[in-house]
Amino acid sequence: MLNTVINAIKGEMVAVLTENQMKTLEQVLTKHLSGIIPAESEQKDTDLLPAFIAAKRVEGCSEKSLRYYESTIRNMLNTISKPEKQITTEDLRSYLDTYQRRGTVSKVTLDNVRRILSSFFSWLEDEDYIVKSPVRRIHKVKTGKTVKETYTDESLELMRDHCDNPRDLALIDLLASTGIRVGELVKLNRDDVDFENRECIVFGKGNKERKVYFDARTKIHLQKYLANRTDDNEALFVSLIKPFERLQISGVEIRLRKIGRELGIHKTHPHKFRRTLATMAIDKGMPIEQVQQLLGHQSIDTTLQYAMVNQANVKNSCKKFIG
After folding, report:
1. Confidence class of residue 157 from pLDDT cuts 50, 70 and 90?
2. Helix (H, G, I), strand (E, B) or coil at 10
3. Same domain assignment for residues 105 and 176
4. Which of 48, 137, 166, 281 could disulfide-link 286, Cβ–Cβ 3.0 to 4.6 Å?
5. Are residues 24 and 103 in the same domain?
6. Which is higher by pLDDT, 297 or 157?
7. Domain count of the chain?
8. What angle do CA 197, 200, 206 make, to 5 degrees?
9. Is 226 exposed, middle or buried (0-12, 13-18, 19+ CB in 10 A)?
10. Domain that holds residue 31
């Protein structure tokens, strides 16, 4: 009863008092009302994080995202050592500052932590566990933009020529022509591929299903790879040695890094194929909405971040329109 009354009063005063004044008000109310109004049994603070995770699971978040949410929030709670309802903006600012000063944390990672904490405390506010989220006054972390590399035509051809088995060649062709995520690649089964229409169905983030399309070269190399297979595994890509199990993300990354080292290609990894396809599609005039659909992005802003505009095209346009 006591906290219910205090929270009701704070809720009516939140628009006219500062945060420090609100804390003073809470202290005064607690002091003078504690002997008059009995305190209700509080819900265990440890119940709030699992309840939040359950809510995010119902919303459709993947288990990988849920684990990231839970570990990030749990680390904050263990560090601050306060019940969720008592955590202030100053507590969180101090926590983020300490987290940043570790020296190995990027601005992007720091802002990801801020976003997760904001989501958690906003949920607490929406569910009436707290009056106001303490993250409201902690603004987005400014992050510097770096020009991320894409593969050149020469690099792609060098990687294709360097492949010493049909699987690696088919794998590189499929990544380059579809721009699918490596997590989507390893989930593909043989039955997911429609060779007649040169397309396949992939399951992206949040188990969202979409079609992607590959070129004639990829079709030929995929068919050749499957024709040489002697196993009965349903997976589209499997290991090169027995028992020919489904290829995992780490297996793809290790193989590409090895090829990159041998060829002297800087930063060879699966995601670079995705960025390369997006950049190439936009440079050739593909509408950004269609690129968004092709890559399976929920927000068009994400698509714009993936696509690095070709500087040669910028130079030519500058000459045409300005020079």
Report:
1. very high
2. helix
3. no
4. 281
5. no
6. 157
7. 3
8. 150
9. middle
10. 1-41
